[in-house]
Amino acid sequence: xxxxxxxxxxxxxxxxxxxxxxxxxxxxxxxxxxxxxxxxxxxxxxxxxxxxxxxxxxxxxxxxxxxxxxxxxxxxxxxxxxxxxxxxxxxxxxxxxxxxxxxxxxxxxxxxxxxxxxxxxxxxxxxxxxxxxxxxxxxxxxxxxxxxxxxxxxxxxxxxxxxxxxxxxxxxxxxxxxxxxxxxxxxxxxxxxxxxxxxxxxxxxxxxxxxxxxxxxxxxxxxxxxxxxxxxxxxxxxxxxxxxxxxxxxxxxxxxxxxxxxxxxxxxxxxxxxxxxxxxxxxxxxxxxxxxxxxxxxxxxxxxxxxxxxxxxxxxxxxxxxxxxxxxxxxxxxxxxxxxxxxxxxxxxxxxxxxxxxxxxxxxxxxxxxxxxxxxxxxxxxxxx
Amino acid sequence: xxxxxxxxxxxxxxxxxxxxxxxxxxxxxxxxxxxxxxxxxxxxxxxxxxxxxxxxxxxxxxxxxxxxxxxxxxxxxxxxxxxxxxxxxxxxxxxxxxxxxxxxxxxxxxxxxxxxxxxxxxxxxxxxxxxxxxxxxxxxxxxxxxxxxxxxxxxxxxxxxxxxxxxxxxxxxxxxxxxxxxxxxxxxxxxxxxxxxxxxxxxxxxxxxxxxxxxxxxxxxxxxxxxxxxxxxxxxxxxxxxxxxxxxxxxxxxxxxxxxxxxxxxxxxxxxxxxxxxxxxxxxxxxxxxxxxxxxxxxxxxxxxxxxxxxxxxxxxxxxxxxxxxxxxxxxxxxxxxxxxxxxxxxxxxxxxxxxxxxxxxxxxxxxxxxxxxxxxxxxxxxxx
Lengths: 385, 385
Description:
Two copies of one chain form a homodimer. By secondary structure, the first copy, chain A, is an alpha/beta fold. The first copy, chain A, has helices at residues 15-25, 37-57, 70-84, 100-108, 129-135, 158-168, 188-191, 240-278, 306-315, 335-339, 344-347, 361-384; strands spanning 3-4, 64-67, 90-95, 114-119, 140-144, 172-176, 195-199, 210-214, 283-284, 296-300, 318-319, 350-354. Chain A folds into two domains: 3-10 and 257-384, Aspartate Aminotransferase, domain 1 (Alpha-Beta Complex), CATH 3.90.1150; 15-251, Aspartate Aminotransferase, domain 2, CATH 3.40.640. Chain A is 42% helix and 14% strand. The first copy, chain A, has a seven-stranded mixed sheet with strand order 2-8-7-6-5-3-4, sandwiched between helices. Chain A has a three-stranded antiparallel sheet with strand order 9-10-12. In chain A, strands 1-11 form a two-stranded parallel ribbon. The mean pLDDT of chain A is 94. Chains A and B meet through helix 1, helix 2, helix 3, helix 4 and helix 8 of A and helix 1, helix 2, helix 3, helix 4 and helix 8 of B.
């Protein structure tokens, strides 16, 4: 049996979620825009799911826009705000450790005469409120800082950052909460954000569904125009089974969050301890426990080629990741780790282990032992070569 | 039992498609971008599905870009071509009977200094090649004419229109084939198109998946940027089960197309005959049989309020539509029917019946009788009022 420790990349669909989706995959197949009974039944399913996602975020249902992925929601946030100010140009602020869906999108918007500031982070990957305050300008239209980083799990002080933004500028505050959903409480009122992205497949829901929370009054142009679905903010026939699955997945994740995350945190501590005992020079990356997502266990191993390590682990049935799945295959060292001040060598020796609902004590024991053995073997091999 | 005659709005998922999707919904849950075994297994599923969609269109697999809907593919075609020419402005040509995903998108692009010509159609809804030729300009960057109309089923002379476009201009030729897929042969080489949109949920595949065919060499900017999936043309974690379902749905649709469309054409003829016998003043809309999609049966009933008719039919278990599902609820008469020269009164009295795999002889007999009865009742009611 293989041990899957890559839950930040994606998660398996929960049985309960699949069961909830099946009626929408079979019986209730209507187009929610149709006015006949088959259409109305599908519309009801979407409404219920929207209520569930809104409830989890302490938002109003009409503030939830379903999309085809977290990346689409991220793009809708940035491009939607910018498009609304068509032609005028302006200034965007993002952190330097954003997911590519924010980073590449912000950079792409330079073509529309938007200047982009990429905020420095500290060695833990944290954005400082004073650094943000200094970057804000009268023409800043949007600030986007992720809630929790996808490569090291560091949690950002979003409430403070949103406060600074709203105190000093008319800018909209956006946060990518794709990794945070289901791992920590997300309350859009407490956070004080205007836009927030979530995705179903990171919380044991289906792939192909994301959502953008857009605070009432946040001016946003659509990315996809057409039949005016989602209150004209995202056209296209709704992915009814996917949306249903998202609703149930978020409801279950919230109900079990406290207990499950305590359990995963214990397993994470055990795994970290085993790795650090076996490999005393392993460098833990990201914020310390309590300031990072509880299911993230991340290390850099000096002198080890990360891709080689991953392949060796894969061969013995352990699924891990160097960083983001989305940039796997790229040989460039992670922009996140470099921004945190790691050397390119150390950044290329990174291992991200992300635990999940299925992870057991036996898994972390075996994974810890195997990782220590494989890292040691790689180093011995490098010495002989 | 209700009779579903709204297959142009959406179709039920085929059992075989669901069965093919289930392994991807349960076991093979990896992120296709992950390099470990779980990721590679998911990548293989996507590759197979891409091959299937490409085969159905006589395209190469790398020319297929999976999206979250047909609307997203339509937007990617128009916005992608236009964005590639950022800042330069230019001229777009569409037909006046396009789906909203093309129509509204083209109109929206006026904000980026693109002029839009909406080509007139004849009474059948056909675009004439000479009308297109006269509209082409040296600065025309894109022509988009749908393969078959979604409200009346009229098939457009795409091969001729693409020929005219390529002979007289450097413009890219795009076609929305959402309704046509599975109903007629779609060969991108024979058609001579550069871009072509299809969608899974119109051919008994899952909602939440579409695709854009983009001929090799067609310059296109992405709509969604980020992790560079789909060869950087559409970022975001792939909807693996949805894509798998699309692949199987298109394979089945193509295998059964000839036989099934002959069967549906016979049933359509029977239904039309019953309606015309019972309601001699019913006005058949769209092109004659042979020049329209074989599963479309569309009529306008002088003196009848279409929305009222639909509600009455719904009450007795017949699901039909006025026109496009995407604009249901809108009280404005259809832009398609108005462009074809119908009066606003007649356009508001339109009924679209679209047959499908489940439609039986008994269905069309009952539907024909009920429609004649309900139209007559509505007219009598109007006379008394």
